[in-house]
Amino acid sequence: MTTYRGLTEKEKSILESQHCHSSDWCQIEVAENFTPYDIHNVTFDGPVRIGSMCRMRNVGIIRTTDDATFGDGITISVLNEGGDGNVIIYHGLTAQMAAFMVRHSHDHTLWEALRAMIRREVDRLKPICTTICDNVTIYDTREITNAMIGDSTEIAGASRLAECTLNGGSDASILVSDGVICDNCIIGAGASLTDYAKLYDCYVGEACHIGRGFTAENSLFFANSHMDNGEACAALCGPFSVSHHKSSLLIGGEYSFYNAGSGTNFSNHAYKMGPIHWGVLMRGSKTASGAHTLWPARIGPFSMVMGKVASHPDASQMPFSYIIAQGETTWLVPGRNLTTVGTYRDINKWPKRDRRPRGRRTSLVEYDWLNPMTIGLCVEGRNILERIRREMGDNAASYNWNGMYIKNSSLHKGIRLYNMAIRLGMLKALEEHEPTLPMSASGTGTWTDMLGMLVPETEINSLAEDIRSGILTEIADVEATMHDMFQTYSEYKWAWFYSLILKECNIDSLTHDDAVALKAQLTRTREEWTAAIKYDAEKEYAMGDVDEDTLNDFVRTIE
Questions:
Q1: How far apart are CA 381 and CA 387, in angstroms?
Q2: N or C terminus of the chain with fewer C-beta within 10 Å?
């Protein structure tokens, strides 16, 4: 905890000689080892605290006003742009906590309990005035009002920071550069806001980047998300959400491990009731260039959306799919994305691109792509396709499901691809865990993705009940419970896959010999999958899009 003191008469004289001004120098407090020599042409108004080793030059105003919030504890509406508020932004917000709030926003008892917890935490850590911590650099900046600026932050040429908290540190500094406007925001460790980005009522999490004129309002960005050029409104962007292009608008949607193609757009005015509609692109999904999706819609994990999708599809039970709009018709190609180069590259690149410092990774991110949630949806998808085939016959030209059309060949191939994914998941689970009985039944039911944290729904329901009943009364306890769930992922996962293996193999128990024989069979499935990935890469080479060296380098990564 930094101890602050008043300025000495000598320090005041030095600051004034360096063209600094204050409405009342007695309201300026500084760290014990503060030196004034690197502060030039800065105007202060009201109480301000300054740490050690700070450098400031050409700053129009640094001030504190009455009723300062520092952006901490404000409520915003994501997904439903016209909603009453479903996320409380605070300095410790994580992706999983945001997902938890959104999914329980209609539970009044739980929400009031959460609100009280967060308010206590905000009040506990609220600074008494604008505070510039140690080793901060600020120059050529117009306005800083009611801001908490963490250690090692660099603010260079910003236009305005008002009601903001910047949670930087020596191991994860924050950069705010030319022309940035940031109102009512919290910025996480290692984030960068650059090149005239404009943010209003937003949370920007660890190692996120917002730049090149990107504009965001009432939106959340977590864990390595990267936004340039476009816009976001009421967007809930989980880990590794990426949009690089102009004319791309992320509005009223939930995204994670997502990549927006150029000109991607979403519409949340379905009819005339206002901007109240929203949708979900589950982890690993993409939108092609020019894609336009009319909410509401739900897209399954690792899927690709193409064209103007106006049929409001729910394809959440069909992971690894293509959703293709042709005129007024929406075509579903189930499972197709399982064997593409793009999916292979994605699942391998995300862990390598986590730029967050290891000691400050507060949002909990599980990278396992063959996880119980995704493979569980593959089981559901396969069973749905088999039921459609039984009911409509093998020879129909196309099939209709949830307002989407599936070609005959796509349905049959989808069944094969989902069986491949299920076998790949079982193989990975057997390679990771000894074939022993699970420690408990937790994990055997339905799973959910809490914006990066994969967890059984029963555990989330139990957490919600502990909050409602008063067992958990502090936000730190809620966060600790979520962390425990994250740490128990491997055991939850094994319980789920053990149950799946028994069902798929029609056995009552899994012995060591069973596991050895099954792994030998399933290894062939993995060889089939990697061969399909290689074939997809060779198709791209045959088109002339890549050279031979690039192809060979990629093939070596999968052999």
A1: 10
A2: N
Strands 130-132 and 87-89: unpaired
Q: Can you tell me the distance from the alpha carbon of 551 to that of 528, in angstroms, rounded to the nearest whole number?
A: 19
pLDDT tens readout for residues 132-157: 999 999 999 999 999 999 999 999 99
Q: Tell me the sheet residues that pair with 176.
A: 155, 193
Q: Tens of pLDDT along 305-337?
A: 999 999 999 999 999 999 999 999 999 999 999
d(CA 473, CA 471): 6
> Across 188-284, where does the E strand assignment appear?
192-193, 198-204, 209-211, 215-221, 226-228, 231-233, 236-237, 242-243, 249-251, 253-255, 259-260, 265-267, 279-281
The answer to whether the CB of 271 falls within 8 A of the CB of 262 is no
489 with 447: CB under 8 angstroms?
no
Confidence of residue 274 (pLDDT cuts 50, 70, 90): low
What radius of gyration, in Å, describes the C-alpha atoms of the chain? Answer: 26
Tokens (6 digits) for 448:
């959910």
In this predicted structure, the answer to whether residue 53 has a pLDDT above a threshold of 80 is yes
DSSP letter string over 404-445?
Answer: EEEEHHHHHHHHHHHHHHHHHHHHHHHHHS-SPPPS-STTSS
Q: What confidence score (pLDDT) does residue 299 get?
A: 98
Whole-angstrom distance, CA of residue 209 vs CA of residue 207: 7
Spell out the residues 6+ positions from residue 524 whose beta carbon is closer than 8 angstroms to its own: none
CB 95 within 8 A of CB 77: no
- Contact at 8 Å (CB) between 309 and 292? yes
In this structure, the strands spanning 137-149 and 130-132 are parallel
Strands 28-31 and 279-281: unpaired
Sequence-distant (≥ 6) Cβ neighbours of residue 33 within 8 angstroms: 52
Distance separating alpha carbons of residues 449 and 458, to the nearest angstrom: 13
DSSP 27: G
Report helix, strand or coil for 493: helix
Residue found by looking up tokens 């000109």 in the block: 263
Pairing of strands 447-450, 215-221: unpaired
- Name residues whose C-beta falls within 8 Å of residue 499's C-beta, 6 or more positions apart in sequence: 444
Residue 264: C-alpha distances to residues 81, 229, 237, 255, 474 (Å): 18, 12, 15, 13, 40
Res 553: pLDDT: 84
419 alpha carbon, distance to own chain's centre: 29
Which amino acid, 558?
I
The reported pTM is 0.95
Count of residues for the chain? 559
Task: Report how far residue 503's alpha carbon sits from residue 497's, in angstroms, rounded to the nearest whole number.
Answer: 10
pLDDT tens for each residue of 66-80:
999 999 999 999 999
For residue range 405-439, list pLDDT tens digits in order: 999 999 999 999 999 999 999 999 999 999 999 98
Token pair 């039911």 in the structure block, residue: 445
**Residue 270: is its pLDDT beyond 70?**
no
Tell me which residue has tokens 């320090």: 11
The CA-based dihedral angle spanning residues 11, 16, 18, 21, taken in that order and rounded to the nearest 10 degrees: 110
| Closest by Cα among 378, 371, 381, 302 to 343 | 302
